[in-house]
Amino acid sequence: MSSGVLKEIINGGNDIVSLKYYKVAVVTILLYDYLLTLADEVKYAWHGRKTWVFALFLMNRYTPLGYQLWVLIVEYGPTSPQRVCDRSAFLSALAFTWSTLLAQVVLTLRIYAITGQNRIIAACFGVITMSQFTLGLYLSILVATQGAQHILPIPLDAYRLCIFVRHRPLEIGFTTISLLYDFLAFSLIIYLVARSNVYKSPIPSLLWTIAQDATLYFMFIFTSHLVLELTLLFARPTLQVHPAGGNIVYLPVMIARLMLSLKKANASQEHVWSLGVPTTHTTVAFAERRGFSDTRDEINLDVYGSGHEGTQSQA
């Protein structure tokens, strides 16, 4: 055996071991964050009227827990048949697509509300979201039909890893769309808040919460997507899958915290949630001054509920 082949085997084994440690670490983060925010979830998310966005919150919250449990069983349990490994690779692609969809739906709803229910802007972000979801769904179908691959052809459990590595151009395209969406959403939210300085008008406190959440989300998730993009482009195959596994955890954690943060900030005020933000007269007037609100429309929208049954917010 040549020294080059031996070095490749050793590097591949080290990469696979590091990936398994990485998966344990991100699952630990998911569980730890869940325990930290469970009290807020019970107090705020489960309080008041339940709407379809509450269901969205639950899917974002609990789907990753089920998926990560499956991963730990498959990757660290007894040797599984190839069909189980194939299913795990398919679930990995589908989970990444699903978590990205949920994150972008929540952010699009916030943008829709903060712009005074501007349908054109929301539609633009919706097109980006659905284009990426379609690409991710197509990638998941390819993985389901072709199954998992072994990075190194070594029939040992230590080298068994349920991943897919045949569709790097599609994965790079998927991640590039995420970077574009994150940048546009962050820029728009910050622009709306920054314009208040020009108009010298007060900014509703909940809009400050949205801006702060958006900044935190952008710094963390955009960086994560950027690292994933660079890894897919330049890293060796056994390292390319590291950040993707983390994103399946980071995205749900960040989205759950964004939703709970705004719900918590809203709890002390008599507002009803509308698409992730309260559409009070202050918020709508703030959007109108920036030319984003269409006052011809009257929309009754409620997200989560305010705890005051029968109360609705009109935009």
From TrEMBL:
<protein>
    <submittedName>
        <fullName>Uncharacterized protein</fullName>
    </submittedName>
</protein>
